[in-house]
């Protein structure tokens, strides 16, 4: 039986976000306990806590890493209505050989929002050092550090008014000069009458304009997470949306002569509602597999076959207490027919147990 | 209220017991499913409930609370319709001897008891809330301390209660108490909802007046947050209010519901989580409330709303809210994280654990992490066996990158590293076309890998004269003395195309190769297409005799059938062949007979047989289709293959502009950026590499390698790429310039021969470069050994001395290391430096710069230095 490795995060409240750096060698977590922790991977692939500090005076919603070419830089956003930029500095660390916590200092505090800042993401590095935030009052703000060597100066470049409170945003990862910078933003507004909960904004070189609202897809339920797939040279954009189910939208180039900006296709929609509300979505590095987490405490992995129909390829249970008991895999009728149009399911189940391996638990 | 409402309550002190009540009261025990006793029933995937006892002696129960002190047995306080509070147990218990069981606490005037609550810390106190009576109080506090119990809470003596049947305190004269709740932190404080008008907080140390109060209609279902005494929730009809007693004037939060609310309850194991239940609903609403500062009006309180559907897992859609499925009550488990039990109208119980919202992420290095609960992170990485079943594509690409895929000089060998047949074929074809062009057998057409369509294209303007397609009637090789013939087209261009398809000039040799590779049916079909019927029969015979052929009988029979070939349009042979060829599983055998039985040169069956490789179909078309038909066929086939992203289509397009959409389609379909990038890097002519989409493939692939830390592989890729475009040589990146004359030291050195500068002079030619070659001023000193740069570092001398006796071939590892030891190196931030070996040695033991009074932490400044490239395996 397979068991996932376990790390005791030692946060005092719910963890809201986990972020990997560019190489996947460092990890940052943030929590309702107002703190941020940074974890480094050692040679044995164990995660060691390397820093822990109180970052905000409210729940910290999201944390994200900048590209390493700008240094070791984190951005966080919080219920306390601010977003912050953090940089690791080489402080009074003890000599090598001894373990010392690294020091992160706040380079700047972005206080423009009047309400809780719900998401923060660095732009692609080709745009320089840019940062997008969104908040519950429905404003997207684009900041830029004009001098990448000076992280304490950020200028608010753009303020985009969305009609609804924003919950999440994502930059497109395209490297192409053909594609303008693009941001998709989701709203967790409860009222379906307010229209589509996803909007796509593009930068024309002068201003950001809304170019698509996915009205044809009809996402009127609250959106909790949104993620562009790594582009990887594809001719279209893939956008994963976490709402009451998992949806994957393709944004292709429109047919000749069309006035539309994109050819929007709903590529996949989870057909069952077994996972309940979907909270988070995340792509693998190739943009070929999507991971989603739902209310039922399971992580589901979705993959497209050659016919471009997406199906669930694995369900990972995150519940240690269940895995300890000896229920056989067949006694889980809760996962029946899993999604993917025209595709019978070949779902596999894996039990993930808690292992309390002392090696994985950092002592400090 | 129609019927009897079923309620459920976890015992506050027994982690495995709960009670339900409606008409009668039942005590249940929860057990893991594996040691389920008989007569138990399942309440979740892992637990069963087992009824321990039942009590039907109190038919008029309105409300129930469980004795909150640790005892082996369960003692209940039942609030009855007549206002009595009865203490009862299930069967004989320790409480019997204490005189508690069966005790009745009777108010002066009988009326309905709305609510009853044990004090959670001073467990001798029970508060009861009753309906209004003109001359009586509605909140009665009973003190059981008179009754001796085992652990003797006896410090408190209420002066007014001489008898246990008299309440020790009374509140709310001629008022109605709808609900009440004790505060945990202040054991004498009771929150009461009164008269549809007020929430009042009383302190029984001074019961005369309310400590604080607020006017509100929401007086029902008072619930105090066990995690934070100052936070409470109450409801009225379909409105839920959340209060903070420190700022009691107005609610912190107002939650409007669709239907009347029947219960609210704070989760005891988690901060700020409120469970709510609406009437006739199958779901439990959860509100994750963000605490706000008291008195801070600016901040809008915020909450996250969720709904969980316990008990309907497995029902697709989940919202089939039949009346019987409606949940009537739920109760949080007092200690188990986020666990609750609920009961529905038909009496079904469900044990349910609310999962925390899981956040997750997927790292570039193939780790998946997600949160479990709020203390634990779970990770799966590519070392785990499970990962290969999830994401084998990323693993495959990484593995291929490490094994040097795409870099082999012989293009065909790259195919050996790829698993997919299509890729193998493509690389083989790239090698073939490159060889053909090299040998001059096929015109180049500016691409290096010309496609069939471009070689077939006649030069513009030149009227076909010499290279005109000649159509010869190929004689059927002497079979049955038939004199029929098929129309065969030949021309120089067609011959080129055939070669690109792999049909080499020497057909006998080609067929021999196929035979020895075991492709008997293909060889036979190609022999037939070349009008060599006897040879085809022979090939099949040989195939049948070969021990490894899977169905020798089959081939034998086909050979027999083939040898009976007759061109008579009405012959039995022909009809039989037409009828039975569809039963042949081998596509080559099928097309062979399709060709032999084809009528009036319509070869659709051969040309559209998708299981036959594109090469063979195109080659066939080049033999048997007229110019017009051939170009039409190739055009359609190209469009089709481009649309499918079939790599076989490269044969038609060659490495021209036309192949870009095809490769793009392949990429869209498979996500195999690696193969595409390498095909571009290895086979594309320079002008194609400048195409936007090609550039994008390449930059994406390079970024992928970078984030996997496969920098060596990325550098190899870059080298392969720049080999295609020799003209643009990358400029030098770094110069070392003299402090005095600002001339580049290294550039100057280059004229004197490479490597001289850094190398220690050989014994013959002593050439010390410790000064600027231009102005003769000395170079800076090494901050460790204080010698001018350009001198040998000590480390090298030792090494050189020890190795002089041995013969080291130049370029060997030790040689290189020695060279490196003498290099200039300096900190990018403080600009101090010295010999590389000295500096390395220094920083292995120190953090700060070796220069006096420089506090720069040179070595730790660069994080990237710690990120190590993945070693080549």
From TrEMBL, chain A:
Gene Ontology CC annotations of this record: lysosome; nuclear pore outer ring; Seh1-associated complex
A GO molecular-function descriptor: structural molecule activity
Family: Belongs to the WD repeat SEC13 family.
Gene Ontology process terms (BP): cell division; cellular response to amino acid starvation; positive regulation of TORC1 signaling; protein transport
Keyword Zinc-finger among UniProt keywords: no
PROSITE patterns reported for this sequence: WD_REPEATS_2, WD_REPEATS_REGION
InterPro entries referenced in this protein's UniProt entry, alphabetically: Sec13/Seh1_fam (IPR037363), WD40/YVTN_repeat-like_dom_sf (IPR015943), WD40_PAC1 (IPR020472), WD40_repeat_dom_sf (IPR036322), WD40_rpt (IPR001680)
Highest taxon listed in the record's lineage: Eukaryota
Protein name in the entry: Nucleoporin SEH1
Gene source species: Frankliniella occidentalis
Segments annotated as WD repeats: 8-40, 271-303
Tagged with keyword Coiled coil: no
Keywords per UniProt: Cell cycle, Cell division, Lysosome, Mitosis, Nucleus, Protein transport, Repeat, Transport, WD repeat
Protein's cellular compartments: Lysosome; Nucleus envelope
TrEMBL record, chain B:
GO biological processes: cellular response to amino acid starvation; positive regulation of TORC1 signaling
Presence of the UniProt keyword Repeat in the record: yes
Protein's recorded name: GATOR complex protein MIOS-B
Domain GATOR2 complex protein MIO zinc-ribbon like, chain residue ranges per copy: 738-859
Ranges annotated as spanning the membrane: none
Alphabetical list of InterPro entries matching this protein: MIOS/Sea4 (IPR037593), MIOS_a-sol (IPR049092), WD40/YVTN_repeat-like_dom_sf (IPR015943), WD40_repeat_dom_sf (IPR036322), Zn_ribbon_mio (IPR031488)
Gene3D superfamilies linked to this entry: YVTN repeat-like/Quinoprotein amine dehydrogenase
The entry's keywords: Repeat, WD repeat
Gene: LOC113205574
MIOS-like alpha-solenoid domain ranges (all copies): 397-624
Residue ranges with Polar residues bias: 462-472
Record carries keyword Nucleotide-binding: no
Region (Disordered) location: 151-170, 442-473
Tree of life domain: Eukaryota
GO cellular component: cytoplasm
Protein family: Belongs to the WD repeat mio family.
